[in-house]
């Protein structure tokens, strides 16, 4: 049932999480859901949807909650963008993984992502990678360098200094908030309970399931705070062609 395949020739389905309150972007998100915040002349979510369409996705389910009616009114059924958009409403906040349990008819493999990401990731390539690996989940990852503003000391068991490192940079692979899942991953999500993506990842690992890592070194920005939002606006205006494949215009 879950044999390795390719995104080519298959109807590709994406689930977009757009139900959060965006509290870190207040006061902007007091009247607008974060995915409708504009970068240039387009809402953040519309940039994502156009990218998905350009990479061959046909169906999108948008998980909504906070100010849901505004998202539904703006994007409607997706015909304007050449997509089939449907909505899954959560009455109470369920976290980032539990909303999947409310969505019926998901295919054997699907993409899931946050609706407030600015990236140049090729979603088709990502899905092909996932299908070829045939693991229960694939996580898109990005390298982040964290600068430590202190001298780091390493000591031995006797309390004697062995090493002193002045302001070392630490490199990590972080989640981009973009995932590919096999449908049987849903069995690890509890019913009617708050459950985040990190909880699902931990549950899968505890059960011995294999999760693939997709390394990406292009452009990625999680639009979570006001300074991130300001940067997203600047980047989109100056590098628009990078984010809208095929030179799409508004």
> Would you count the extended β strands for me?
13
Task: Identify the CATH homologous superfamily.
Answer: Spore Coat Polysaccharide Biosynthesis Protein SpsA, Chain A
Shape: globular
Counted up, domains total 1
Instruction: Give the terminus-to-terminus CA distance.
Output: 40 Å
CATH top level class name: Alpha Beta
Order of strands, main sheet, comes to 5-4-1-6-11-8-12
Cα gyration radius (Å): 20 Å
Residues in β-strands, percent: 25-35%
User: Can you name the CATH architecture?
Assistant: Alpha-Beta Complex
Helix percentage: 10-25%
**Helix/strand structural class:** alpha/beta
In DSSP terms (H or I, runs of 4 or more residues), the helix count works out at 6
The main pleated sheet reads as: 7 strands, mixed
Protein name: Nucleoside-diphosphate-sugar pyrophosphorylase
Domain Nucleotidyl transferase: 14-235
Organism: Desulforhabdus amnigena
Key structural traits:
Nucleoside-diphosphate-sugar pyrophosphorylase, seven-stranded mixed sheet, Spore Coat Polysaccharide Biosynthesis Protein SpsA, Chain A, 250 residues, single chain, NTP_transferase_dom, 32% strand, alpha/beta
